[in-house]
Amino acid sequence: MAAKLYNIAIVGVGEIARNQHIPAILKNGDFKFCAAVSRHQKADGVPNFISLSDMLESDTNVDAVSLCVPPQVRFDMACEALLAKKHVLLEKPPGISVVEVERLIDLANRQGVSLFATWHSRYAAAVETAKQWLSDKRIKSVKIIWKEDVKHWHPGQKWIWQAGGMGVFDPGINALSILTYIMNVPFHLQKAELKFPQNCETPIAADMAFTGENRLEIEAEFDWRQEGAQQWDIYVQTDAGNMHLAEGGSQMLIDGALHFEAPEAEYPNIYARLSDLLNSNQSDVDIMPLKHVADAFMLGKRTIVEQFHDDRSGH
Ligand code: NAP
Fold first, then answer.
1. Is 27 a catalytic site residue?
2. d(CA 49, CA 84)
3. Which residues line ligand 1 (CB under 6 A)?
4. Where are the domains of the chain?
């Protein structure tokens, strides 16, 4: 039997849609890029619409939508698409609150369509190998350092500084998505400090301390003020050596020596997974990374730091 071809539309033609989603869809034979929805931007070679409603009311044949808009506007769009019985892919973070994502899970189930909350960093080249390597070890401690220059990576994006944009947790949740995937014991947040620029609604830096089974200690440092070398590192100390997931999960080292690396294929792997989910009528929504971020906002101490200005956003 011939494999089903799914017509998929992109909603929110911004950075990630242009750089990753559209190229990954075009290279995957299970999907046909059928339409784009964006208020100010257009995608080549497909019908373009200003709103999701316009697309859903048109005669364009759509099976699934990839929501690449900022998280603050994703819930309403996801509901609209699910109610129209479209499968929905959510960029990370899947929502701005835990409960809104739970409502989407419920709605997708009731509508009989698939919901896929993507965590692109989990598809980084060395993450699966790291999970397997850790599976039979006693993990003693973990240190996460996730430090990047927000002006370089998010120029002109106002939404990251507005409530629900999550600030430094926008990249930090990527580290937490890897951590929650590779760890073999449960853990929870014990303490956090969130640093808010005086003129922003979201934090520019955060320090977190978690505790887990068997006296496990986890520390995380997220900072968006990093100049010079950028750092996306997870160091894990075990009873059988030290593992280092470097470069955002694309390289794995054991006791300082390179153990595994492979070419980057996060988004092609995401669309391969989406195809599997659609073919098996399943959903995949893990909200654990979002729960840890919600805990940080709930129990974290708040410190006010120097104002942040980005000339490109007029912020
Ligand atoms: P972006 O460049 O700002 O693009 C988002 C697009 O959504 C905008 O171009 C905008 O297009 C549309 N949009 C609709 N409603 C909007 C609103 N109220 N405010 C702002 N834009 C709105 O953002 P992005 O970097 O692609 O990020 C989108 C999502 O992908 C985020 O959740 C982010 O965490 C995730 N992500 C980003 C990256 C990355 O490297 N950039 C990597 C992985 C995941 P119109 O104005 O044309 O409607």
1. no
2. 17
3. 12-17, 38-41, 68-71, 73, 91-92, 120, 157, 159, 170
4. 6-117, 121-266+294-305
